[in-house]
Structure formats: C-alpha cells, structure tokens
Amino acid sequence: MKKNIQGKTALVTGASRGIGRAIAIELAKHGVQRLLLVARNADRLAEIALEIEAMGVEVVPLVVDLTDRVQVNVSISQAWRDYGPVHLLINCAGVAHQAPFLQSKLPDVQAEIAINILGMYTITRLIARRMVRQRAGTIVNVASLMGKVAAPTMSTYSATKFAILGFTQALRGELAMHNVRVIALLPTLTDTDMVRDLKLFRWAVPMSPQQVASALIRGIDRDANEILIGWQSYLAVYGNYLAPRLLERVMQLAAPLPDRQQSWLRLGFRS
Questions:
Q1: DSSP codes of every residue in 16-81
Q2: pTM for this prediction
Q3: If you compute the radius of gyration of the chain from its CA atoms, what whole number of angstroms results?
Q4: What angle do CA 169, 38, 146 make, to 5 degrees?
Q5: What is the pLDDT of residues 127-177, one digit of tens each?
Q6: Which of 143, 32, 166 minimizes the C-alpha distance to 93?
Q7: pLDDT tens digit string along 251-264?
Q8: What angle do CA 84, 81, 5 make, to 5 degrees?
Q9: d(CA 230, CA 223)
Q10: Which end of the chain has fewer beta carbons closer than 10 Å to its terminal beta carbon, N or C?
C-alpha cells in the first residue's frame, strides 16, 4: 500500500484508543510522514503520540471535541496552515450505548448522533473542501457491520452506522470528479476498551483492533469502496441479501438476554 501513504499526512479521529489508535500505529508502520491525531482525552493522546514518535514519524496531537463545531473549525484550520495539506482522513471517533429501544435514555441517543454522525460531518466538511481544491485525497469513514445488519439492543448505534454508509456512498459519488476517494470500513465485533459495558452477542467471535487496521491498509491499497473484515462480515452481508428473514431471526437469537438470565463477558463493539 505503501505508495498510497508514504510521505503523506494523515489525520485520524478517535486516535487515543481502540481501532483509531491501532490505525494510527499501522499508518506509521507503513511510511506515513506526519500524523494528526484527534481525540478528547489529552493524556491518552500524549501516550500514543510518544509511542508513534519513537517510530520516527512526526505526530501532532489535537485535543478536540468533535461535537464542538467552533473548536473543530479553529483547530483543523490552524493545523492545515501549520502542517500543510491532509492527504488521508480517517473518521474513527464514535460511541455506542446498548439498551433495548424502549429503555434507551435520550442523552445517550443524542450523544451517539452528535459524535457518530454530526461530528464526522463537521470535520469531513472542512477537510473535503480542501481536498477538492488540491484535487487529491482519501477519506475513510469507519462504520460497522451494524451499518449493514441492524442488531437488537443497538438501535441508535445501528442507525448511525447505516447513516454513515449512506453518507459515504453519496460523498463518493460527489467527490470522484475531484480525484478524492471515499471509503467505508466495516469492522465487526472488535475487542477494544471503548465500550466495556456492552454485552456480547452470542456466537460472535471478536477480532483485534490490529486486524481491523491491517485490513484497512490492504483495502486502501486495492482501491476498495467498502472494506469488510473477516468471515463473519461476509456471512452476515450475503446472508442478509439471500435470506434476510432468516438472518433477522438469527440476530434476534444472538442478541443479549436480560441481565437476570445471563452474566456477560466485558467486550466492546467498535465504534
């Protein structure tokens, strides 16, 4: 892949942990020249910055809350002036709250929409406009397999991921004429610390953040529009196409039981 990112500048949101952190490290391993790392937690951001700088890559930590439109505009505009154009944008920031819809709390719903969708829109709008002017760039939106196959107890999260896939497809069509690529990355269950309170879906085999990051590198290299990861993803997508009712029934059976019926492993869905 190396030719696509070597010597380039990449910006990764949600970079302080989980999949975003793994992607930042993987980009550094494959020759990116400069990494702009965006996250809300300054301490964790400083830790990953030090780790990557030890690999010989320039790192610019940006402590930014993507739900604060003014802060995003000021920080990204300043970074573009100070460090030059961004060639690769990885939108990885996100949150997930798990609850049956009728028990969901409005602040949790609003947070998922604000971060997973509106925060992504805000930073993408800023970067995409500049990429269009330079007639070059790649945007990767990290969605989820739940953007293809919705899951019980994850209604808002699934809705945001479906929205991300629709946004990605539409943006791909708009920006193609400007030589800007737009890609969707669709991880399945990933073993991260992002959402430790989520309850594990039965029969789901988690993958590591490093596997997701490696799949992204390969997907960019082969000019993929959508990057599915692992046999579970392909099984779910093709199953939804060939036998949607059957897959829906399987998802119902796989969904977490009420707390009183089962104790759960602490594994988090990626976001």
A1: TSHHHHHHHHHHHHTT-SEEEEEES-HHHHHHHHHHHHTTT-EEEEEE--TT-HHHHHHHHHHHHH
A2: 0.88
A3: 18
A4: 40
A5: 999 999 999 999 999 999 888 988 888 899 999 999 999 999 999 999 999
A6: 143
A7: 777 677 555 343 33
A8: 20
A9: 18
A10: N
Quote the tokens at residue 6: 């070597």
Architecture of domain 2-261: 3-Layer(aba) Sandwich (3.40)
**How many angstroms separate the CA atoms of 166 and 105, rounded?**
25
- Which sequence positions are flagged as catalytic? 157
More confident residue, 88 or 201: 88
| Tokens describing residue 46 | 């400083």
**What are the φ/ψ torsions at residue 141 (nearest 5 degrees)?**
-105, 120
Core vs surface per residue 202-214: b (16+ CB within 10 A) or e: eebebbebebbbb
- The CA distance from 18 to 192, in Å, is 5
- Strand 58-63 with 180-186, pairing: unpaired
Contact 140, 90 (CB under 8 A): yes
Question: Residues 84-105: pLDDT tens digits?
Answer: 999 999 999 999 888 889 999 9
208, amino acid identity: S
Residue-wise pLDDT for 240-251, tens only, equals 788 788 877 777
Tokens standing for residue 25 = 């490290």
Residue that has been written with the tokens 């089962």 in this structure: 262
Distance CA 195, CA 96 (A): 7
